[in-house]
Structures are given as C-alpha cells and as structure tokens.
Amino acid sequence: MNRSKIILLIAVSTVLVIIASSSLFQTQEINRIQNIKETPLILDGTKKDSHLLQINNVTRGNKLKHHLDNRVEVTHFHHNQQDTSHYLDHEVAVNFTTAPTKADLEQILQDIDGRVIKQDGLLLLFRSNSIETPEMLEYFQGKPKVDYAEPQYLLMQNSIRNANGLNLPNDQYYQEEYQWNLPAIGTEQGWTISRGNEDITVAVVDTGVDLDHPDLVNRLVAGYNVLGENQHPDDDNGHGTHVAGIIASETNNREGIAGVTWYNKIMPIKAMSAEGYGTTFDISKGIIWAVDHGADVINLSLGNYKESNVLKRAIRYAYEKDVVLIAAAGNDSSQQPSYPAAYPEVISVSAVSYDGSLAGFSNYGSYINISAPGEYIPSTYFNEQYASLSGTSMAAPHVAGLAGLMKATNSNLTNKDIMSIIQNSARDLGKRGKDIQFGNGLINVNQALKEAQVAEGGKTTRNKIRERLNIFR
C-alpha cells in the first residue's frame, strides 16, 4: 500500500484559533514534522461485496446476538464466560393460579406503572413504563394467585462461532486488516461486553461530518453548524468525518470500516472552517451547544498552545454537566502544553505508532493522561470516501469511543468515574507508571469495560438479574 502523508498546519495571525490535530508523515522521516500539505491516502472503495464474502463467515445468528446485546430494550446476562441469554427489559410474564379480579388487575397496573400487552389464559405479559424487569420480578414474587413470574426471554437460531471465539465485524477494511488500531487496544474482546447503544451520544466538535456518508448516515443525530448558524453541519474539509468514523462508523455492514462503538450516536458540530481552523468563540459555542442538546461525550481533535478564558468557560460548563471531554495533544513533537488538552477537566491523548512507540509527531508532557493509536488510521472521509490519516486527532476519538462504550455499559458512571477507569485500566507503555509520553499508558477497551461493569455507583441490570434469579444455582 502506497502510504502518502499529510500535515495540516494553519497559520492565523488575526484571531486565536484552534488547529485541527491531524497529520501524516514520511516513512523515511518518521521523527520529523514536515511543513507541507499533501493529499491523505484515499483507500480503494471500489471493491465489491463478493470480495468480502470470500473472507468472512459471520453467521446470521451471531449477528443477531450482537444486535440484541446493544438494543436499548434488550438486556442480557452471562451464564458463563461465553454464553448469554437475552430478555426484553420492562417486561415480565406472569402466570396466575386463578384469574385476577378486575380490581386486582387495576391495582397491579397502577403499582407497576404499566399495562397488559398480551394474554393467554392465566398467563399475562406485563410491560412497565418506568420499572425495570428485576424490580417487577420482586413485585410479583410471593403475591397471592401468582404461580410464577419471569423475564420475557428471547430465543434465536443456533449458530457456530468463529474459530477464534470472537465474532468480528465484516467491514471491508477491517477484514482486510487495514484497521490494526482496534485489535491493538483490546476492542475485539471489549465488544463481547458492550458494543454501545443508541442512547449514548458522542459529539464531534470539528469541521462537521459528511451527512451523506453511507458509513455514517445511520449513526448521526441532529447537529449544529456554528459558522453558518444553521442545522446543517456538513463537512467541507474531511477532518471531522474522519474523526467521527473512528468513533462510530456503521459496523458489520460489509463496507468501509468498523467503529470503536457499533451503536452509539454521533452529534456533528461544525465549528471549524474548510481550511481546518476555528476560533475559540466558535469552538466554545459548539461545546456548549453539544452539552445543551444531550451529548454524553465530546471529542475535541483540535488544540492551541495559548490558554483561553472563553474556551476554559465552555470546558468547565461541560464538565460540570457530567460530560466526558477528550482532546488531542497536538502534532508538533513538542512538550509545550496544548489547550484544551491540558485542562484538568479533559482527557489528554497522545498518539501511539503501530510498533507501540510514541508517534514521531505526537506532543508529550506531564499533562498527557492516556495514549491511543494515531498512525495510519483508516476511517471515513468527506465526499463519501475513506482515507488513512495520522495524528493525535486520530488518537483522541479512540478514547471518545471507549468513553461512549463505558457509558453504555454502566449508565451510572460519572465523567469522573470514566476518566479514572480509562487511566487506571490502561496498559503501561514506556517508563513504568505514568510518564510524559504515554501518560498512564495505551487504552485497554476490554479491561476498561470490565471495570465499568462493576464500578461503584450502580449495578448493571445484568448483575441485578443474576442476584434476583439466582441463575448460578
């Protein structure tokens, strides 16, 4: 593969700007930043599905399991390390010994805030508007005239797992092993715990997102164009689309790439121009808009070496609203703190090369919290293309995607919890312990999700169902 490289440096003298942290570099000069502007490597998007079919054999049944694992109204619990069962949340099947009277039934529906959605003789299926299945089971346990109550289980066709025990996505560039970055951070194992869900939204404050890209169109929620003051945050640069694809490209759809999260949503915020820069005012306005419109995580693949009160205000606003903030460290191979990455409310991300070393372009310093893959990262690109880019801009969205997966795994986690778990679960690189190159180390998706499941602050529904049904006995 011919790997062309790009560095994006925008010089602006009249306004304080945020520089998009995206760069590709010459293989022969891996440790030197080049002040040139080239075209990013565009991946060949002309290959047909027939090519993919020859190298992929993910069964329909396993795909269905993956889908159910992450449906908002579907919950699953593990019988052991590999076997799971699914049931519909907020629903309970109750078999009565004798038919409940009209008064009894009205009282039940009032108590569970629900209704009867199906009935077969003495077997009634209840659905609650607000109460989860474990609490409903507790309610019916020991009630007069109740024979038994159980979740509304889902049955599906049997199928065979892949040889390696992992059900991997069938996306073209994933199958062709361009996406070295996801296996390197334990994403494949992490997907057995969670692939995200559609209730969790990651905002990308950037150059916008290609609103018509086939690998993103189903992943988008309503966004905002700060520059045009309208609801059309289309990308005219490519950078924001690339960042968005790393986080949540449509996964397992036989084309393009796989995202870190399969189901989380992307909120596109256009706050930077076609040239790749934006003012602190516009960036800050974009952050605040994202917070006010429901973003759980905000990715900021941008930076500047000068502190800004305007930007600091927006960062603090988001942090106080329990939003997780992730920012790229910058691409100048410099120890100078970059903002917003250096703010304590933000997870600062340096870039790792495919050989596990600090990428030659990556900034570093005591403010670095974590590291992630940032070299030759394939992703979506504007004009419905795919491209391979490098930069700390590419490293940051790996962390944003992980934060989204963690929130999907345990909705009770605060932004502080997520920041702490990401750092504490990382795989140590470089000098032992925290260092100025990798921070706490390389993100570990699998370990972070394991810790998120059992984190203080709330039990997952899976754990509650285990306890209340005593499924291991």
UniProtKB/TrEMBL annotation:
User: In the UniProt entry, which residues are flagged as the active site?
Assistant: 206 (charge relay system), 239 (charge relay system), 393 (charge relay system)
Q: Where does the record say this protein resides?
A: Secreted
Keyword Protease attributed: yes
The record's annotation in InterPro entries points to: Fervidolysin-like_N_prodom, Peptidase_S8/S53_dom, Peptidase_S8/S53_dom_sf, Peptidase_S8_Asp-AS, Peptidase_S8_His-AS, Peptidase_S8_Ser-AS, Peptidase_S8_subtilisin-like, Peptidase_S8_subtilisin-rel
What region holds the Peptidase S8/S53 domain?
198-441
Q: Which GO terms describe its biological process?
A: proteolysis
The keyword Cell cycle belongs to this UniProt entry's keyword annotation: no
The entry's family comment says: Belongs to the peptidase S8 family.
Name of the protein this chain belongs to: Type VII secretion-associated serine protease mycosin
| Protein species of origin | Mesobacillus persicus
